[in-house]
Design a protein that fits this description.
Layout lengths: L68 H6 L5 E5 L18 E6 L5 E9 L8 E5 L10 E4 L9 E4 L12 H10 L4 H5 L2 E3 L1 E2 L7 E5 L3 E7 L2 H7 L3 E9 L1 H6 L25 E10 L18 E4 L6 H38 L1
Antiparallel strand pairs: 1-2, 1-13, 2-3, 3-4, 4-5, 5-6, 6-7, 8-9, 9-10, 10-11, 11-12, 12-13
Length: 353
C-alpha cells in the first residue's frame, strides 16, 4: 500500500508549531539517595510466558499496595518521553468520522524539542477507525508493530494484535493483507497466534479500561483525579498502569544498605485490587505546553506528551511494552473522539426534536 509521508516528516525540527519548551533534566533515581534493588527470585514452576518484573532502580510507586495515587504521581520519574501529535475533535464540529490522517509519535532531543517521528499510526481507510502502528522511517515496507480493529458503537470493544520484537513485525506486511486482517478482528489470524486481546471498559460509569496482553500481564488506562492533575500541572492526565501480582509486589520491596525496609519500615494494610497492585508505567499529559498545536482544552482526542517509565520490566520486554503503551494510548484518544461524536449526535437529536 502506497503511503504519503506527512508534510512535517522532513522538516519537523524547524517547525515552530511543533517545538516544545525545554524540559528539565531527567533524574536517574526516584529519591535523593540511591536505592539498592532486591533481586527477584524466579519461580521454577512459573510458566515461560509469565511476565517478569525486574529493574534497578525500582520505581518507588511500585513498592506495594500502600502507595496512594497522589504519592504515585509525585514519585513517577519518566525515563523516556514521546510526543503524540493530533488535533483531535473540537467541540464545534460535525459528528463525522475523522479524516484518514497519519498520527506521528515523535522522539525528543536532549533539549526537549521534537526530533523525528519514531512511530506512525496509519488508517488504511478513511471511514474506518481501524489502524496499524509502524516505525516512522518505514515508508515502503509498512511492517505493522501492532494492528487495532476499532468499530464505532457500544458493545464492540477494540481488538489489538501486538507484534513481538524477537519475532519481527506482524506477518501482514502489505496494505491489502493489513486491511483484511483488521476487518477480521478477533476472528483473524491473530487469535490463532494468540497475540491479540480486547480492550474492555471497567464499568459503564467509567471511561477507564483494562486489558490482558498475552505474555506481558494485565494493564489499564484511567483518567486521573483533580489532585493528580494538579501535581502534574495537567489539564488532562491519562494514566497507564500494570497490575502486579501479590508475589511480584512482595519481592519488589527493596532494602537499603543497612538491611532495613525502604520508608518507615511499615506496610499499611490496604485492600488490594482483585487482579493485582497497580503500578504506574506511563502517563499522557495535556496542558498549554504539551497539547498538540491547533487543539484546545476542550478538544477531544488531541495529542500530548507521553511519558514512560518501564524499568520495572525485563529489558527484553521493554520494547514490546512500549509498543503496547503507544498503541493503547492512541485507542484511548480514539475513544474520546467517538464519545464526542456521540454527544454531538445526541445534541443534534435534541435540537431536531
Amino acid at each position: 500500500m502506497a503511503s504519503t509521508a506527512p508534510p512535517y516528516y522532513h522538516a519537523n525540527t524547524t517547525e515552530a508549531s511543533l517545538t516544545a519548551p525545554t524540559l528539565p533534566p531527567y533524574t536517574e533515581h526516584a529519591g535523593d539517595r540511591e536505592i539498592e534493588l532486591a533481586s527477584l527470585s524466579r519461580s521454577t514452576s512459573a510458566s515461560s510466558s509469565a511476565p517478569s518484573y525486574v529493574h534497578d532502580p525500582l520505581p518507588s510507586h511500585a513498592a506495594g499496595p500502600s502507595s496512594s495515587s497522589s504519592s504515585s504521581s509525585s514519585t513517577f520519574t519518566p525515563t523516556k518521553q514521546l510526543q503524540i501529535q493530533t488535533q483531535g475533535k473540537s467541540m464545534l464540529s460535525c459528528p463525522t468520522p475523522q479524516p484518514a490522517e497519519q498520527i506521528p509519535v515523535f522522539t525528543l532531543t536532549a533539549h526537549g524539542h521534537l526530533e523525528r517521528p519514531l512511530y506512525l499510526s496509519v488508517r488504511p481507510r478513511a471511514r474506518s477507525g481501524s489502524c496499524f502502528l509502524m516505525h516512522g522511517d518505514d515508508d515502503e515496507a509498512q511492517a505493522p508493530l501492532s494492528m487495532t480493529t476499532y468499530r464505532f458503537g457500544p458493545g464492540r470493544p477494540p481488538v489489538v494484535e501486538l507484534a513481538d520484537p524477537a519475532q519481527g513485525p506482524l506477518p501482514s506486511s502489505s496494505g491489502g493483507e493489513i486491511e483484511k486482517e483488521m476487518a477480521e478482528g478477533e476472528a483473524g489470524s491473530g487469535a490463532q497466534r494468540g497475540t491479540n486481546f480486547k480492550i474492555l471498559g471497567r464499568s459503564i460509569f467509567s471511561r477507564a479500561v483494562r486489558f490482558e496482553a498475552p505474555g506481558l500481564g494485565t494493564f489499564g488506562w484511567r483518567y486521573a483525579g483533580s489532585k493528580e492533575r494538579a501535581d502534574e500541572g495537567a489539564a488532562s492526565l491519562l494514566v497507564c498502569e500494570v497490575f502486579l501480582p501479590a508475589s511480584a509486589t512482595d519481592s519488589l520491596i527493596s532494602h537499603d544498605e543497612s538491611g532495613g525496609r525502604r520508608g518507615n519500615g511499615k506496610r499499611k494494610e490496604k485492600k488490594e485490587d482483585k487482579k493485582g497492585t497497580p503500578c504506574r508505567i506511563a502517563q499522557l499529559v495535556r496542558n498549554e505546553t504539551y497539547r498538540s498545536p491547533g487543539s484546545s482544552r476542550s478538544s477531544a482526542g488531541n495529542g500530548g506528551r507521553l511519558m514512560l517509565e518501564l524499568r520495572i520490566f525485563d529489558e527484553k520486554r521493554q520494547e514490546r511494552v512500549e509498543w503496547l503503551v503507544v498503541t493503547t494510548a492512541l485507542v484511548m484518544l480514539k475513544r474520546e473522539v467517538d464519545r464526542r461524536r456521540s454527544q454531538q449526535i445526541a445534541a443534534i437529536g435534541v435540537v431536531a426534536s
